[in-house]
Amino acid sequence: MASARIPLDEQHVTEPSGPMGRERTLPALHPERMEDRCFVAYRPPPLEGSPAALEEFLEHAQFISDDLDWLLGLPHDKFWCQVVFDESLQKCLDSYLRHAPRGLDPDALPASPAVADMQRRLHRSVFMTFLRMATHKESKENFITPAVFGEIIYNNFLFDIPKILDLCVLYGKGNSQLVHKMIENIFTQQPSYYADLEEAVPTVTQVLDTILQKCGLQLEGATASEPLKLEALGKPTAMTMSQKDLMDLVLYLCDSCTTIYSFLDIFPAACQTFHSHGFLSRLASFYELAVPDIEKAVRKRNFDDKSLQEDLWRRVSHSCRKMVEVAHLLLQHTCLQPILEGDETRTSYLLQGVECAWESIGRKRLRPAPTVASQEAERGGKEWEETTPGQSNGVQRGAEALVGPLRKGDNGAVCTVSAGELESLLSHIRDLLPDLGEGFLLACLQEPVKEDLPPVLSSRSNVFDDDEFDVFNRDQVDMSRIWKGRKQGENVRAMLNDKQHVKEQRARYQAYETVVDEVPVGPAEQGAGAATYVTDDYDDEYDDTYDTNQVGANDLDGDSDLLNRRPFTIPQVLRTGKQAQGRQVEEEEEEEEEEDEKVAAVKRDHFVQDPAVLRERAEARRAAMQSRRGHRPEPASHVAGRPKGQGQTLETVLDRRRKEANKSRGANHNRRTMADRKRNKGMIPS
User: Fold this and answer.
1) What are the backbone dihedrals phi and psi of residue 408, each rounded to the nearest 5 degrees, phi first?
2) Greatest CA span in the chain, whole angstroms?
3) What's the per-residue H, E or C state across 566-604?
4) How far apart are CA 640 and CA 650, in angstroms?
5) Which of 65, 205, 399, 518 is deepest in the core (most CB within 10 A)?
6) For residue 504, what is the enclosing H or E element?
7) Residue 379 confidence (pLDDT)
8) Mean pLDDT over all residues of the chain?
9) Which helix (H) or strand (E) is 140 found in, with range?
């Protein structure tokens, strides 16, 4: 056995071998110490959700989960022998990393509770396996030399950059600390992974270029590795490509952005590698070019399925958010973090500049009168613009905001400094911002005129603005409604004698006082004016006999009524063989039903018929119907047989054998058949 406190890579074990049981000594990590076990590859949950597919997935996932639980239960030396030398185990783990559902996938949350529970169990088993594979020291007795551990995981491809990216996506959200320790230990014990990351970043950048090419776009100044072909000019854009291609493009973009963000968020040390390859500028250019076209295509194209359009829009929004967060991570860990940790003076100046920039948004800068100093500053500013043509006006405004705190007093007045003090200020600023010219800094140090604050009354906001007592906006106010102290109540007698409200309502009810039975019509009002008074005269000659009858209401003249009365039938000449045969069978059944009804009508005098007779007749009708349809009745079963000791007939023996062979079809989850199948394929040693 292995000695205690010795690394696994230096241990040797003595084991019996051969038919004679002779002992032999082998290294603790040796291929012959690996157990003969076959790990099957992972398959994702089925999308259609049929019972057969769900049962197959559950059984397949159960095999993988049981095998991984067995692997995690092995001792330290046996575990590493299985991990290093068992190729089927690595294929099983790789298949799960490639095909496991992501957070935004449609099948990420299976509908079946059994499938969801099995997926969670399998998800945990895979994570625990990778976590143990990334640990070189489990205890004081079980450990591997760090240098040898790095060689083992690197030379045997136990971990690589694609696997690490998938681990961050699958397990980073809920286990960020464990995944961070795992990846940090991998890169610490094997620095060669940093070189692999350097080679992988251009491939990640190529992903962005591929998406641009699919959209018919190209970065400005980008040079192609091969000449542009003629057919490339007619490539479809996001608006013209097929709906399936657009869906694949959005899924590809969403998966790529989520993977990059998860990796940089879990392992911030990789931000420096991405930044050294100019990934931030490429990402910004990609966002500016591709995102508007993709958003326009998803928003304005016509989709047959609106839920698909909503899902694509949700994925595009998620991708945009992840790209912005990736930019934040790169700026935080490559630009801001080194400054915050190493230069407090520079940090304070930058923070003051940012605060000043926020305060100066929306304010208009007034240029002072031209002086000699301002002319020199203007010339210096032009020189700075000529020396740095790549800088934009936004950079100038940002630099102006940075030096703003140095040139303002408490009350906005101009700070008067001597030539020596001014030179000292310029030297300090040039140390912090070496790219800026001296003339531009002098122009920024000049104090602009302080803007007058708006009056308080015009800028105030109150819930009582513009009401009847607002003396700031009204020239006249009803003073009768304003009094000092408590208002004296009116006299009760005076209040009761006040009939003002009665007078106000009198005019309203006067319109209802006069009731006119007859309206006299004068000679001048004859004609059109009098027609309004004679329209309601009673006509004694009108016949109202049929006023209450609904003529035509119950007629069956509509198409739907005709169809309800007589269904459509195909003429016998136009029927095919199957339709004619089916119609003949239906007619025979109808005739039999009519005969049964006739027979039943003859025997109506029976008050209660015998139930046994009714059951026999129903059974006879059912057997006749099944025989006409070609259905064979099930043979009688002889499984029970004779009592023990009297021997069994041939029918009993055959029925028992048939039951033994077919009972695994429905019960016990088909375990017997699948066990035989695994044994026939060599998965289980005989």
Assistant:
1) -110, 140
2) 144
3) CCCCCCHHHCCHHHHHHHHHHHHHHHHHHHHHHHHHHCC
4) 12
5) 399
6) helix 500-510
7) 44
8) 77
9) none
